[in-house]
Amino acid sequence: MAHAEPARAEDPDADLHRRLAEAEETLRAIREGDVDALVVRGSEHDEVFALGGQDSYRTFMEAMDIGAAALDADGRLIYANAALCSLLGRSAKDLQRQGIAAALGERAARIVQHLIDEAELSRRSRQVALPRAGGISHVEVTVAPLSLGFGHGCAVTFTDVTERIEAAAAHESDRIGRAIMASSNEAVVVCDRDGLITHANAGVRHFQDGSVVGKSFDQAFPLSFALSSGLMGGGDLIGVALAGTAVRGIEATLTQDGRTQDLQLSAGPLRQSGDAIGGCIVTLADITERKATEKRQALLMGELTHRVRNTLTLVMSIANRTIAATRDTAEFRIAFGRRLEALAATHNLLAEGAWEGLTLEELINVELAPYVTLGSGRVRLQHLNVRVAPDMAVALGLIFHELVTNAVKHGALSNDTGRISITASPKGESVELVWQEDGGPTVLAPEKSGFGQTVIARGLGPGGTNVEFRPEGLVCRMYVPRGQVNQP
Amino acid sequence: MSEEQRTDPGEEPLKLTLYVAGQTPKSVAAIRNLQRLCEEHMPNRYEVEVVDLRQQPQLAREHNIVAIPTLVRSLPVPVQKIIGDLSDHEKVLIHLKVER
Questions:
Q1: Could you tell me if residue A315 is inside a domain?
Q2: A384: which DSSP letter?
Q3: N or C terminus: which one in chain A shows less Cβ crowding within 10 Å?
């Protein structure tokens, strides 16, 4: 390991011995791995060569794009490669002089120091955020124990995972966006800056069978807007959204293949990074059923108002008819009371919606009960033991009520001799119901159409009813689709 | 090349030259080991020069250096050479003739 080199003034033998000992010691040191570099004398100059592939190892470390450093047991930097210098924005000399902690910043340095403390026996990793120009670098720091020639230390690597994290975040937000679109009950489409559809969820198939992607919004959805909306077409809606304004609850109708649907639309800008508008999102909800319900409710409200107005007239009429048919006050009280109860029952049916499972006969009897004795010769019911669907029962109930009211006020039930015949019979795809009055006062067609007539004419939809004002008595024909009745 | 001198007057200092080759592991280890030896066993008695032969290979000739790392004690005479990373502190101290 060591040998003495005596003063120059020595005898040649001693010098030879000394040189020999030195050569032997050098060979021993090389053989036993005590050295890792040699000086080779050249004719012009000397060169230093590293042993044991250290040069290639160092070259490899320098070529890596992962930042790498070796620290001694006290945390002092022994070596840092070029990638780490670049990542931390310091030269190797600055890192040596200032230490790695100064370059990492307080928070990251604390985390790395914690990893070093933990990594005494095995490798430890953690992600840290390092500030950089224009943002943050996400770096995976790994610390592993390292055996050095002079003791123990650690190897620290810094892998920049910013791109991976940003890509994962972008992928995740894209996935969430798609999941939201997919899970929406409403139809959702995304348009680009030119108003062309770039994405559409499954809900769109409710409105369009084929793919709408690549079409303009106008082309995919030929919409008509109410004048009050200020929009001429779907393109205007897209224009408003692309200009940065969100609009919601806009109603429109979509007519295609002879079918009309009521839609409610919302649209808003799609903001990308930097708040730039890259397109817009439009949601379309089918509110056809809701609109139909609203119309039905409006009709029922109108009907109730109409009934309230008629009630006093009807009560007066019932009173007059009952007085004419009874002998004394006691008999009048009973008969009048029963008829008023029957009148109240029809109101309850309408108000409570207890129409389910009724037969045509039950429906008609409920309406007639206040005015005539059921089973009397004045009313003839034929083939009416037919159950009807609840919706149809409501519609027919209203129509029967109007027909009975009309008969009591002006027709076959307004005198003592009138008769009513009600029959049902199959006719094509429908069941035809015929309400026919005879024996009442001579019928004159009304000069103007009241609410009652509107209910009769429209209650079953277009072509569902037909009223004929014969002088000898009114005839009303009603056509109920077979699917709405259930004959026993 | 770097020099460090910490000597007290009146006491013969150790004049040491450590020859290294850049940052090879044994060079780094030798520097660290020598630092510790000097601080712990010969405070204020040494004068150390570290020569990086990668930077200045021509300086190898002065002490006829072949293997790296090598520590040369040029004072007190006779000159002593110690080859290796100086991790065996006891042996190094014996060869440097430092009383512990």
A1: yes
A2: -
A3: C
Q: A480 forms bridges with which residues in the sheet?
A: A431
Provide the number of structural domains found in chain A: 4
C-alpha triplet A378, A361, A487: angle, nearest 5°: 135
Superfamily of domain B2-96: Glutaredoxin (3.40.30.10)
Q: Is residue A170 part of a domain?
A: no
Q: What radius of gyration, in Å, describes the C-alpha atoms of chain A?
A: 49
Q: Are A296 and A251 in a shared domain?
A: no
Under 8 Å CB-to-CB from A224, ≥6 apart: which residues? A252, A253, A254, A255
Closest CA of chain B from A116, distance in Å: 20
Angle between helices A451-458 and A288-325 (to 10 degrees): 120
With CB atoms and an 8 Å threshold, state whether A36 touches B84: no
Cβ of residue B98 closer than 8 Å to a chain A Cβ = no
Q: Would the CB atoms of B80 and A78 count as touching at under 8 Å?
A: no
Residues A224 and A256 in one domain: yes
A401, part of any domain: yes
Residue with tokens 């048919």: A325
- Give CA–CA dist A372/B24, Å, rounded: 119
* Domain containing residue A105: 66-160
Nearest to B57 among A29, A39, A151 (CB): A39
The answer to the question of residue A248 being in a domain is: yes
Q: Are residues A71 and A199 in the same domain?
A: no
Q: How many CA atoms lie within 13 A of A359 on its CB side?
A: 12
- Per-residue model confidence (pLDDT) at position A451: 61
- Residues of A whose CB is below 8 A from B68: 35-39, 48
Q: What CATH number is given to the structural domain containing A228?
A: 3.30.450.20
CATH of the domain at A461: 3.30.565.10
Task: Calculate the CA A278 to chain-centre distance.
Answer: 20
CB A48 within 8 A of CB B57: yes
Size (chain B), residues = 100
User: Is the confidence at residue B10, as pLDDT, over 60?
Assistant: no
- Same domain assignment for residues A217 and A116: no
- B100 pLDDT higher than 50: no
Please judge whether B21 and A37 are an interchain contact, meaning their C-beta atoms are less than 8 angstroms apart: yes
Q: What is the mean pLDDT of each run of 10 residues along chain A (488 residues)?
A: 52 78 81 81 76 61 81 82 87 84 86 87 85 80 78 84 83 81 84 90 85 89 84 86 90 86 91 79 90 84 76 75 78 79 67 66 84 83 85 78 86 91 92 94 82 73 87 94 77
Same domain, A482 and A410: yes
Bridge partners, residue A160, by sequence? A139
Does residue B41 register a pLDDT over 50? yes
